[in-house]
Amino acid sequence: MRTTRTFRTALLTAAVAGLAATALPAAPAAAAPVAPKFLSARQWPASLTPWTAGPVHKGLPEDGSVCTAGTIPAKGTRHRDFRTELDTGARQTITVAPTAAKAKALAAELRTALATCLDRLKEQEPGLEGVSRYHGRVNVEEGAHVYSIDTSYPEVGSTDIGLHSVGRGGRTVTVLEWGQLGDLDGAPLKGFRKTTGTAVAKLH
């Protein structure tokens, strides 16, 4: 009798356990991480002709970026180019780092690269003149920082102005580059700061 009772108890226990397991809802599948969003063409500062947005590409741009080349890793990076019908162009690069600490370190390296860019360009290009300025912080997410680099070749009379920014939200870092013929007086600095804030806010 004890053997029979033990056997029946074991069967009942197994049945209850099986019923409980059947009644438990299936665990939801882990949601895929949402990729950071890029700027749209209309979110860049207004130009004399409309902006056109190119496709989003994985990795680093083939032609590189003058100030940040060698700083941004190809892994976890995507980029998008923008242009107008005149001599104005722009680029956004987004990098998702493995950790927030690595993203913070990358953002710091990029700030150094932008701050020292003009000096490095002068070493590479004899005759190049220019002025580099830091235009302060944009208070969005973990922060963004704006720079301008005004360059000229007096011998040929050409002048170029570039606006740059780097910002971070969590594990994600974005770099914006905007450039056209001319100087800082003709650049939409206020609009570029707004674009920078929009770009960092769209990362998450």
Q: Unreliable stretches, pLDDT < 50, 5 or more residues?
A: 1-30
> Major sheet, described briefly?
7 strands, antiparallel
Oligomer: single chain
**Helix share, percent:** 25-40%
Give the topology string: H per helix, E per strand: HEEEHHEEEEH
Spatial separation of the terminal alpha carbons: 67 Å
Class based on secondary structure composition and strand pairing: alpha+beta
* Separate helix tally: 4
Mean pLDDT: 86
β-strand amount? 25-35%
Per DSSP E runs of 2 or more residues, the count of β-strands stands at 7
Supply Rg.
27 Å
Strand order of the largest sheet: 1-2-3-7-6-5-4
Shape descriptor reads globular
Compact summary:
By secondary structure, the protein is of the alpha+beta class. It is built from 4 helices and 7 strands; from the N terminus they run αβββααββββα.
What labels describe this entry?
7 strands; seven-stranded antiparallel beta sheet; 29% helix; 204 residues
